[in-house]
Write a structure and sequence with these properties.
GO terms for molecular function: adenylyltransferase activity; ATP binding. By secondary structure, the protein is an alpha+beta fold. It has eleven helices and seven strands. 51% of the residues lie in helices and 14% in strands. Helix 1 runs antiparallel to helix 2 and helix 5 crosses helix 6.
Length: 258
């Protein structure tokens, strides 16, 4: 099953299970921004509903997602969240969600037919909504500009939570942190909402030349042209420290306390 077939099946699943309360289904992440890889990227979806359904709906939706995952050989997986429309139009941070499915929860869904991840808050959702508003694809329902009202401060707080511990953690996930730091700084400098790949490419053009070897390695690894990034941990930490210093400075200038 190719990616477009998967998206069609996902859309039909949400229409069938959520019915009339489904405002819309929106694609975000790498697939919406043109840098998706089946073996490394999730299919990222956000569904918006007018009102809460009964708990049996989430159970059926989870079963459907598990079944669909079994028909996706070679694909990494899906990350799906469902929120109420009120939080799309009047966002809170962190944002409450009604249902969530991802690879981190798939085994629990498989082993426990009654398990549902929902009724909590997710700091990442503010970032997802900003991406949907600027770069997302409407798979079903109302166009995203009529549904979402993302707020700049919430977006910045959301993406900051992804990288605030980068100095301590970048050596364990150099590609993730390096490219994320670039796309966050690009937004703070230029207001552009970017993918990780676009952030790294921007970094090659806009950051000091000393960072070029690291950025090129990370982009190659992200694109699947190499399997590892060969940079000493102290150099990765120095990059993260420099980037975080400017990010924090620009957040302070925006009136946002890191």
């Amino acid at each position: 099953m190719n990616t477009q077939q998967v998206l069609h099946r996902l859309t039909q699943l949400f229409i069938t299970e959520l019915g009339a309360p489904l405002t819309g289904l929106y694609l975000h992440g790498s697939l919406a921004m043109g840098c998706y890889r089946e073996d490394r990227s999730d299919i990222d979806l956000l569904a918006v509903i007018e009102e809460k359904p009964g708990p049996e709906v989430w159970t059926r939706l989870a079963r459907g997602l598990l079944e669909l995952h079994g028909l996706m050989p070679g694909h990494r997986g899906m990350e799906v969240s469902v929120i109420l429309r009120q939080y799309a139009g009047e966002p809170l941070h962190p944002t409450p969600f009604e249902f969530h499915y991802s690879e981190a929860h798939r085994e629990r869904y498989e082993s426990d037919a009654q398990y549902v991840c929902g009724g909590y808050e997710d700091p990442d959702l503010a970032a997802h909504m900003m991406v949907i508003y600027h770069r997302g694809i409407t798979l079903y329902g109302e166009p995203s500009p009529s549904v979402f009202r993302p707020e700049k401060e919430m977006y910045i707080r959301s993406i900051w939570s992804d990288v605030e511990h980068a100095v301590e953690q970048i050596a364990e996930a150099p590609v993730y942190y390096t490219l994320n730091l670039c796309r966050i700084l690009r937004f703070l400098r230029e207001g552009e909402v970017s993918s990780k790949k676009e952030g790294g490419e921007w970094g090659l053009e806009s950051l000091p030349p000393a960072y070029e070897p690291l950025l090129r390695q990370c982009l190659l690894q992200y694109g699947g042209q190499t399997d590892e990034v060969s940079v000493e941990p102290r150099m990765l930490q120095a990059f993260a420290r420099d980037m975080l210093n400017e990010i924090k400075q620009r957040m302070t200038e925006e009136g946002i306390r890191p």
